[in-house]
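Quiz preparation item.
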């Protein structure tokens, strides 16, 4: 690893000068408006009269109904919401919304009965309801909810406002499904999955780059193993929704930890014994494709359910073109392809698919 070059005193002085020359005095106030007042100021149907405006550089209104519903649910529950960002326009004193248009337009659309609440996980009794279905008391309480705005003064010109928008929307990295799951569905089962991720044999057989491991890839793979092992591969549900459903069920209904641990370890020992590369595609692989892990782990599990004393014959099918094809698909959440690759591994292990019936690359 190359040693970082130490900057000279002259370079440090130049850098400090650049910082001071580039700094902009972002003077702002923090204000709170009740939803009722904010909607009065904002009117997407009559932008000429609106004193809260959405600039052209903002995105179109793209949130789907389930995203809108989740946001409305958060408001009703009193979940802390990230402040909106706005800037005072020097020419007329109106507010240009730099960040928060999806949220504000969602509130307006809900108030106008433009969508029904759906797929709520906490306030399930509100599913199917529109704003007009609320009692007058609940409507009043909703309109009195405060939204916080950071309001930048009129010194911020268009280029500065656009720069702020860009930084707000590109800084940081969006949490992936595994990271969200860890925060949203933490519980006894997810803690168990995290323990499984520390298994030394799992780490040996299933290489994962450090950055992916920190972002929960190991837990993602293990959760997929347990989900598809228990739910099977015929379910019409797939992907994150199915994993979330399974995780919630295990957290709420409970599970037999010793049995799950044994199930996981038996699968790993079988892979260690009979799969020369473990879950890897090649001897020098530094990561494990999800589709390959699913195929092997769940396929082994299903084969052992049919024959606990299984001792497979030739493992040459691992080098077949057929196996390569079913485990290189990028559609990891496609139910049909998931079933195909898991069935392939299971049936090869059980000798239902004959090694000499498969295709192999020449040479």
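Solution:
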């Amino acid at each position: 690893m190359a040693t970082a070059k130490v900057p000279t005193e002259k370079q440090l002085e130049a850098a400090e000068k650049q910082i001071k020359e580039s700094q902009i005095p972002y003077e702002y106030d923090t204000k709170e408006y009740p939803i009722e007042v904010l909607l009065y100021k904002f009117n997407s149907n009559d932008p000429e009269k609106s004193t809260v405006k959405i600039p052209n550089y903002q995105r179109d209104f793209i949130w789907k109904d389930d995203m809108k519903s989740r946001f409305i649910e958060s408001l009703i529950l009193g979940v802390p919401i990230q402040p909106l960002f706005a800037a005072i326009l020097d020419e007329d004193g109106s507010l240009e919304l730099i960040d928060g248009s999806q949220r504000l337009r969602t509130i307006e659309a809900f108030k106008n009965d433009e969508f029904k609440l759906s797929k709520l996980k906490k306030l399930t009794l509100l599913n199917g309801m529109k704003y007009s279905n609320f009692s007058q008391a609940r409507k009043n309480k909703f309109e009195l909810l405060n939204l916080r705005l950071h309001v930048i003064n009129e010194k911020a010109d268009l280029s500065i406002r656009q720069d702020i928008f860009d930084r707000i929307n590109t800084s940081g990295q969006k949490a992936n499904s595994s990271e969200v799951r860890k925060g949203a569905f933490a519980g006894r089962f997810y803690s168990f999955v995290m323990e499984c991720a520390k298994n030394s044999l799992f780490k040996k057989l299933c290489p994962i780059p450090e950055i992916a491991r920190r972002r929960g890839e190991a837990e993602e793979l293990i959760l997929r193993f347990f989900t598809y092992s228990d739910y099977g591969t015929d379910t019409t549900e797939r992907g994150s929704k199915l994993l979330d459903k399974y995780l919630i069920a295990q957290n709420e209904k409970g599970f037999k930890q010793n049995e799950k641990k044994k199930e996981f370890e038996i699968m790993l020992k079988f892979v260690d014994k009979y799969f020369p590369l473990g879950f890897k595609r090649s001897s020098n692989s530094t990561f494990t494709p999800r589709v390959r892990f699913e195929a092997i782990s769940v396929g082994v599990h299903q084969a052992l359910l049919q024959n606990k004393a299984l001792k497979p014959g030739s493992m040459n099918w691992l080098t077949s073109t057929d196996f390569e094809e079913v485990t290189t698909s990028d559609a990891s959440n496609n139910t049909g392809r998931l079933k195909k690759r898991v069935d392939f591994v299971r049936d090869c292990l059980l000798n239902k698919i004959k090694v000499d019936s498969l295709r192999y690359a020449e040479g």
